[in-house]
Amino acid sequence: VKCLVVDLGSLVPNVEKAKGTRQTTSFCITSYVERLSFCSITGHSADTAVMNGGGAHDLSEEESKQDGAGDTDGGEDSNEQEVIVIQDTGFTVKIQAPGTEPFDLQVSPQEMVQEIHQVLMDREDTCHRTCFSLQLDGNVLDNFAELKSIEGLQEGSLLKVVEEPYTVREARIHVRHIRDLLKGLDPSDAYNGVDCNSLSFLSVFTDGDLGGVGKRKKKGSELEQIDCTPPEHILPGSKERPLLPLQPQNKEWKPMQCLKVLTMSGWNPPPGNRKMHGDLMYLYMVTVEERHISITASTRGFYLNQSTTYTFNPKPANPSFLSHSLVELLSQISPTFKKNFTVLQKKRVQRHPFERIATPFQVYSWTAPQVDHTMDCVRAEDAYTSRLGYEEHIPGQTRDWNEELQTTRELARKNLPERLLRERAIFKVHSDFAAAATRGSMAVIDGNVMAINPGEETRMQMFIWNNIFFSLGFDVRDHYRELGGDAAAHAAPTNDLNGVRAYGAVDVEGLYTLGTVVVDYRGYRVTAQSIIPGILEREQEQSVIYGSIDFGKTVVSHGKYLELLERTSRPLKVQRHNVLNEKDESMELCSSVECKGIIGNDGRHYILDLLRTFPPDLNFLPVEGEELSPESVRQGFPRQHRHRLACLRQELIEAFVEHRYLLFMKMAALQLMQQKANKESKLATLTENSSPGAAVPALPSTETPDASAESSETSTETLTDAAATEATTTEAAPKTDPLEGKAEDSIPGLAQAKELAESLAAEDGSGIDPKSREVVLNACKAVGSISNTSFDIRFNPDIFSPGVRFPEDSADDIQKQKQLLKDAGAFLVSCQIPSLVKDCLDHSALPMDGATLTEALHQRGINVRYLGNVLAFVDKTPAKAQLEHFYRIGISELITRCAKHIFKTYLQGVELSALSAAVSHFLNCFLSSFSDAVAHLPADELVSRRKNRKRRNRVPGGGDNTAWASLTPSELWKNIVSEAQSYYHFTLYCENADQVVEKYGLQKITLLREISIKVGIQILIKEYNFDSRHKPAFTEEDILNIFPVVKHVNPKASDAFHFFQSGQAKVQQGYLKEGCELINEALNLFNNVYGAMHVEICACLRLLARLNYIMGDHHEALSNQQKAVLMSERVLGIEHPNTIQEYMHLALYCFANGQLSTALKLLYRARYLMLMVCGEDHPEMALLDSNIGLVLHGVMEYDLSLRFLENALAINSKYHGPRSLKVALSHHLVARVYESKAEFRSALQQEKEGYTIYKNQVGEAHEKTKESSEYLKYLTQQAVALQRTMNEIYKNGSNASIMPLKVRGLGPIYFHMGQKDLENLKAEVQRRQQLQESGKSVEDLTVDSPLELEDKIPMDVNVD
User: Fold this and answer.
1) What pLDDT score does 482 carry?
2) Distances from the Cα of 1009 to the Cαs of 850, 927, 1155, 1169, in angstroms?
3) Matching HAMAP family, A to Z (predicted)?
4) How far apart are CA 745 and CA 875, in angstroms?
């Protein structure tokens, strides 16, 4: 890396403004570091750089508008104030390649020559060249020079592409690149989960017609020829859940064969005398025409030689067809190659860049079709070298991961360009490291790596491979004996990873953590870590100069470590504390005792073993003689857990501290008010007020009010009702709050209290009168602050650690800490869980599957081990019916997690040759209705027929390694039920899969998806018959692969994130244009740090699209949302709940652009995915069905439309209650369809229902109610008119006066927006309405529109 980090400082990364140019351009930016790691191995990077031909390369860079960055948040953050230095505007150069016309290329002065190479290797007409130089007036340009540093290079200069002689390395790169081009459209890498390829199916549904939309299609003509009928399984009420449509066959992917075989020849390497003739290596090929040829790669290019498979004759054939590139050579020999290669490249270049660019981390697919296994020399070679990423192209071969990870952290970060560069480098190295660690972990478990302690038993072995250290998640040498043995050893790595993540996020200069990746594969847990320089040469005892290697029996401390850790203490809320060592001396620590400090041979201060960064969770840690708070005891805590490493999550600590801060402010405010009100009785009231408060708590942690805490004060009045929902925080005051009744009156004093607290913190309280100081002191004591003059809560992570002893003099402090921990545990149970459930009730949290449920729990600081409690809480909620979807997802998550625990140990006992049989047997026991699933013992492949007959009668489970085969469905389900009881303290009532489906309303396909994703199984995509009682659902042929499940740190793009947040804030305030600019800026910065593909870029694009849409730029909305969908499919997975949401939004924008049939296809796709992921009974389904109904209404498919809208009405009534405004809107939509069908009686009936809801909920005067009553009048008139028309028809057969409905304002019906935009939108809509004729049409819906879908604050909340 030292060589890599050469003048990184010189680069000001490209940040391009999306305003003038089409957005694709910003994806051309390959960062400097990435380019360096390519070190001119242009061969590989073509796909990474995705310069979409020359055209997309117009990086027209303009100065970032300073005003955008300047006035965002008035100095809240210093980096908002910096001028963003963005490079000078681009210029155009001409490129002349051999055999092609010169073409223009837009470049920017900041770019390196290397990037032009990338563009040429991706362009259709020059993609087959890899070994060339660029020359300006006969001078060769240096690949790593920036264009601005090249003399004489200016607007209009002509650059010549000059073919260079090959070396062995260049020849190999060329072969690799040609192979990549031939595989350009082949999805097998995505199915196999290699090289960061992943699937995307959007183009199947849009037929690629989103780009030039409005121009190419005439809007009108589209209406006639649409077939709108969805497949049967998508219709409401269908019970069928087919698996095949999940991965529709893409016509484009039909393989176009250019070559039958391309492989290295067995005659390699060339003998000495041929080397001296310039032979570099030999290739063997078979063309589609069945011609077998042997090719020499020489310094001058490629030519045919006279060798055959068995005779070596390296002389050139006649003719030899010497060509500088393989493509030119093959095009002369094989007409089919010539034809197909051209077509293939055309198709490749036409694909959206997002379909082919690599993702930062590998995404695996849990289903795949049977893919043909083809010969592939490059793949074969890669499998047996330890090649990772681009090592062999970097001088110095294997990568020193630790050095790379730490050096990137040390890069300068004073201004924006430096920070961007640093974050880009950190992100790149992290994603490379995660890929290497994953590959290494799999090699370790597959037995391809030799242990460093080969003499020990297998579970105790450790490994080093590619400069990464691997250890298994077992309790080695009874290290964790007191903490829970193997269970603790299994939990420790994830806790440690959370610690690494937390310290990494605080990012203190001078404090280093190890690169850490945790991989679960084939039932084993592997921890992969970078290696501290010098650690392998020394004993651990000598190296550790801070912390303890034996859980606190011996402890050492170190001044420099204390100083470094002190800087993390405030953000991580860790209290500095003393512990006793073995000699009873007091040692000061600022972390848990297990956290070890080691100075590496490189002089850096490393900390490792961060498994107790966060304080213990007392609800799962019974301690003798300690009584938990009543809230916890009521819920049946403390409970015995598998291990003693249960910690509170960082999110919980933050929420708890925030909650305490509010309490602190309220107490101070109350006291100030009382002082003011009556000075005489002040003392009496104060004592009265702080005594109940004293029991309130004590812990170690927070910064003075941060912005979110301040914003939440406005909601103090609502605090008293069990859970005030504030998007960011959960400040539900516990019911025991002494201030409960008085919360409202405290508001006047809040501002004073805040001022007081801030001035105290600022001036050490010198200028403040003692009375006020006393107010703060009392409030501090009441909330358990560790300081008496300001609010500061921190936790001591060593409380209740076995083996840790504290000095006598800190007994008081320890008592306070214990209380604070109990309070935090109680806060989780009494506030966070109820607040989660409340969020689900008012639909601000909408989990759809296990992953999104887990995320919802984690955001509120609730560990998944509380899942049983959460479900029990839902069970007792009066509104349980409205939480049915949540309960069902929870049960499914609980069952699949229990199955995962069992599967893990089950797999450890299976030998490799029986893996697919064992996995299919487990799935049969788990899901199949076939009650006596018998395992197929897989010895049949290798044993001759005769013996096999005897073997068949063998008892399953007879042999040693076949214990897995004796598992039966009833035994597995017994184990699942007992696991649910012991781990989650939840009672499941079921003895097999069918009962689960029956009792809890689950779907087997959903369970299959959840378990496959959790344990990394890939199954064959076909229709499984789970319910057959005669044969098992799975056979061993159905199990295609086992993938690793990987956990790693996700480095963040901090500046981009700030811009994104400021942009969101602007949008919330209604400044759409400014918001849009900031979010565009954020998008550029995200692209700079993450490259083109990332979850956060996805969020950015989605928000941009929404803004474009609201501001009326439907075309741009479509383009951005298309990228968001593609990215979501690629980065999160094709059926991830976020992807489903993205599909719904894209459908809306297609609709707005008049592409009705595409909109319908997308909505049907979203509905299919949703049915598979969570079933039909989910609140989101109502929204989806309303949208489908509206589009169908728009294309006059009234009967179909009615089916979907009535389903939406039923679901809305169930989840929002029959009196909700959503239900009123649903009634209205159904009435509209009846009106269109001219069934006025039914229409009247529906609209009356809606009218009644409006009248009761918002009153007669409200515009909604008025509109509804107008519409009722109109329907009545229509009914009368219809009667007349009918009479007329009887007379003369004309139906002239039945007016068809105009499909006009349907667009924005269902859509998430902030209230401000809503107002703007309403004004806009009303303006448009006045402009158009006043005739009643679907317009009135537009005004309803935004009601429907709201991210945070549904409008009908206040009235519902």
Assistant:
1) 86
2) 10, 11, 33, 12
3) CLU
4) 36
Tell me the per-residue pLDDT of 783-822, one tens digit each, with 9 for 90 and over. Answer: 888 888 889 999 999 999 888 999 998 888 999 999 999 9
In sequence order, what are the beta bridge partners of 146?
Answer: 112
Residue 256 near residue 343, CB atoms below 8 Å: yes
Which alpha helices (H) appear in 1153-1197, and where do they start and end? 1156-1174, 1179-1194
Query: What gap in Å lies between CA 240 and CA 1023, rounded to an integer?
Result: 11
Q: Which two tokens stand for residue 598?
A: 């080691």
Separation CA 436–CA 430 (nearest Å): 10
- Which residue intervals of 764-883 are DSSP H helices? 770-783, 811-827, 833-841, 850-859, 867-876
Q: pLDDT tens digits, residue range 1202-1240?
A: 999 999 999 999 999 888 999 999 999 999 999 998 898
Residue 795 near residue 573 (C-beta atoms within 8 A): yes
Are 89 and 21 spatial neighbours (Cβ–Cβ below 8 Å)? Answer: no
For the stretch 656-702, pLDDT in tens is 999 999 999 998 888 888 888 766 554 555 555 444 333 333 333 33
> How many CB atoms lie under 10 A from the CB of residue 955?
10
| Residue 756, CA distances (Å) to 674, 703, 709, 763 in order | 15, 16, 16, 11
Provide the phi-psi class of 697: left if phi over 0, else alpha when psi is between -120 and 50, else beta: left
Contact 1321, 1349 (CB under 8 A): no
Beta bridge partners, 596, equal 608
Distance, in Å, from the CA atom of 561 to the CA atom of 603, rounded to the nearest integer, reads: 13
Residue 1041 CA to residue 283 CA, distance in Å, equals 31
Question: Quick check: 961 pLDDT over 80?
Answer: no
Closest-CA residue to 1105 (of 1152, 1137, 1168, 1070): 1152
Q: Inform me whether the pLDDT recorded for 53 exceeds 70.
A: no
Q: Which residue pairs, CB below 8 angstroms and at least 24 apart, start in 69-75? A: 69/1059, 69/1081, 72/1059, 72/1062, 72/1065, 72/1066, 72/1078, 73/1062, 73/1065
Look up residue 797 and give its amino acid: P
List of residues 6+ apart from 168 with CB closer than 8 A: 280, 281
* Residue 639 per-residue DSSP state: -
Helix axes 650-677, 770-783, angle to 10 degrees: 140
* CA 31 from centre of chain: 22
**Dist CA 13 CA 10 (whole Å):** 9
Residue of 388, 201, 196 whose CA lies nearest to 1131: 196
3-state secondary structure of 278: coil
The DSSP secondary structure of 729-793, one letter per residue, reads -B----TT-TTGGGTGGGHHHHHHHHHHHHHHHHHTTTTS-HHHHHHHHHHHHHHT-SSSSS---
Taking the C-alpha atoms of residue 64 and residue 76, their distance in angstroms, rounded to an integer, is 20
Examine the pLDDT at 1105 and tell me if it is beyond 90: yes
Strands, E, within 175-273: which ranges? 259-264
pLDDT at site 46: 32
Contacts of 655 (CB under 8 A, 6+ apart): 729, 730, 827, 832, 860, 861
Written in H, E and C, the secondary structure of 360-424 is CCCCCCCEECCCCCCCCHHHHHHHHCCCCCCHHHCCCCCCCHHHHHHHHHHCCCCCHHHHHHHHH
Contacts of 749 (CB under 8 A, 6+ apart): 668, 669, 670, 671, 672, 673, 676
| Distance separating alpha carbons of residues 1088 and 1106, to the nearest angstrom | 23
3-state helix, strand and coil shares in percent for the chain, rounded to the nearest 5: 55, 10, 40
Bigger pLDDT: 801 or 209? Answer: 801
Around 646, how many Cα atoms within 13 Å sit in the side-chain half-sphere?
A: 22
Calculate the alpha carbon distances from 1223 to 236, 525, 632, 1038, 1152 in Å: 18, 49, 38, 45, 24
> Residue 794: beta bridge partners?
700
Whether the pLDDT of residue 28 is over 90: the answer is: no
